[in-house]
């Protein structure tokens, strides 16, 4: 009987070791898969960042609309004047050429836009930003009519004087 008990004890100990070993192997596999997934995703992010960093970006092209715009507008009892320097930015050389060719049309649209403003509307920064957005939309529309795509990225006021 002693042999039978010792055999049963050894079998139980061996079964416990095998079950414990399987558990440790399972945990190790899960940990390795998790670490591998993390490293893979991190590598993908690094590759995406590298691709973004190495992708050639077209240089910014600035076109000043010279001379500055000078318009008058009514303010309750007096006539006021507005002088605005405008520069347009794009990344597309074709858009620069289209703006140069459409200079009279762009200047006309901006003169009409600037002269329709009120002193109260332009007195705060929100009014100036709104005017800037409207001017950008006007230029984009003219360029889109000429080239088929509105390749104007930004419009900047390089000077802004109200009197």
From TrEMBL:
Would I find Protein biosynthesis among this entry's keywords? no
Membrane recorded as keyword: yes
Q: Where in the cell is it found?
A: Cell inner membrane; Cell membrane
Residue spans making up a coiled coil are: none
Q: Which InterPro entries match?
A: FliL
Q: Which domain of life is it from?
A: Bacteria
Major location (coarse): membrane
Residues annotated as transmembrane: 23-40
* A Pfam entry, by short name: FliL
Tell me the keywords, alphabetical order: Cell inner membrane, Cell membrane, Chemotaxis, Flagellar rotation, Membrane, Transmembrane, Transmembrane helix
Q: How does it sit in the membrane?
A: Single-pass membrane protein
- PANTHER family listed in its UniProt record: FLAGELLAR PROTEIN FLIL
Biological function: Controls the rotational direction of flagella during chemotaxis.
Describe the family membership recorded for this protein in Swiss-Prot or TrEMBL: Belongs to the FliL family.
**Designated name of the protein:** Flagellar protein FliL
